[in-house]
Write a structure and sequence with these properties.
The strands form three sheets. Strands 2-1-3-4 form a four-stranded parallel sheet, with helices on both faces. The protein has a four-stranded parallel sheet with strand order 6-5-7-8. The model has no long low-confidence stretch (mean pLDDT about 95). Helix 2 links the parallel strand 1 and strand 2. The longest helix is centred in the C-terminal third of the chain and has 17 residues. It is α/β, with parallel strands linked by helices. It starts with a helix and ends with a helix. The structure holds 1,3-dihydroxyacetonephosphate (13P) and iron/sulfur cluster.
Length: about 300
């Protein structure tokens, strides 16, 4: 089948299977353009909790499909490829988190959604890059264990006097952005706006004009008067920004960085997932119930 035939089949199967396609901003352009909902982790968690369809095909990575399943346990959630994983989510494990909680008994645990269901289940509340500052500031404790992204946690620390104990996790994609390459990019484009994701390292964040979640970038890209925008995040985001704002120029802030988990899914995989009902996300209710509390608290806070 050629591309158009695959898209036609996906549309047909979506109706037949009563399915919606939730798509993260880092997916390839062809998948972004057939999305029912395209967004950042927060938008997609909200949609997963709201949508009426009985099947969600999640074009993103495993923790996003798990979040959708936890928030909508009665729905069938399909993640088209097993390789669609987030290495940062694997950096936190529940046993080690339990130890850290024992070391800091007064601390509340704020867990970035880029984490396993088991780690969410050990947490007081979840957050995303769009609401982390707000969530931490709303916690009724002066001590916070922040897991698993040390860069996002350090970014949040800039806005609060609370003591934040950082987990030693990071995103291998955003961590590749280096201050030196960004300084070079700024020299080459002195009038450009520089926006970066809060998963970038502190020296990169220090250089940025704006620090934003991927949906925050969509908003600022449309509003800014700047004609050139340097973007410190994954390549799929830059593709979306360029597609939606053809009169502006979007460049990676340094070499282009791609997330192999996000890029594991192709159009044909979406078609096969719908045709064969694979790969279904399944989790025990004993894990989903406490993880759901942490996610629902996030949705009610922010
Ligand atoms: P956003 O929630 O900002 O889309 O980020 C998700 C992610 O995985 C960033 O690497
Ligand atoms: Fe995980 Fe980083 Fe990929 Fe986001 S970009 S899914 S944090 S590895």
């Amino acid at each position: 089948m050629d591309k158009n035939e695959i898209i036609t089949e996906i549309q047909r199967l979506k109706k037949e299977e009563d399915a919606v396609l939730l798509v993260h901003n880092y997916q390839i352009g062809d998948i972004q353009r057939i999305a029912d909902f395209l967004g950042d982790s927060l938008d997609l968690s909200r949609k997963a909790a709201e949508v009426k369809a009985s099947t969600i095909v999640f074009c993103g990575v495993d923790f996003m499909a798990e979040t959708a399943k936890i928030l909508s346990p009665e729905k069938r959630v399909l993640l088209p490829r097993r390789e669609a994983t987030c290495p940062m989510a694997a950096m936190a494990v529940p046993e080690a988190l339990k130890k850290m909680k024992a070391q800091h008994p007064k601390a509340k645990v704020v867990t970035y959604v880029n984490s396993s269901a088991e780690v969410k289940a050990e947490s007081d509340v979840c957050c995303t890059s769009a609401n982390a500052v707000k969530i931490v500031s709303q916690m009724d404790s002066d001590e916070i264990i922040f897991t698993p992204d040390k860069n996002l946690g350090a970014y949040v620390q800039r806005f609060t006097d609370k003591t934040i104990y950082l987990w030693d996790g990071y995103c291998y994609v955003h961590n590749q952005f280096e201050a030196e390459e960004i300084i070079e990019a700024r020299k080459a484009h002195p009038d450009a706006l520089l926006m970066v994701h809060p998963e970038c390292s502190p020296p990169v964040i220090d250089l940025a004009d704006e620090v934003l979640s991927t949906s925050g970038m969509v908003r600022v890209a449309a509003e800014t008067k700047a004609k050139t925008i340097l973007v410190g995040t994954e390549a799929g985001m830059i593709e979306r920004l360029q597609y939606e704002n053809p009169d502006k120029r979007f460049l990676s802030a340094g070499t282009v960085k791609t997330c192999s988990g996000m890029k594991a899914i192709g159009l044909e995989d979406v078609y096969i997932a719908l045709r064969d009902g694979i790969i279904e996300t399944k989790l025990p209710e004993s894990i989903m119930a406490p993880a759901r509390l942490a996610l629902e608290r996030m949705l009610s806070y922010a």
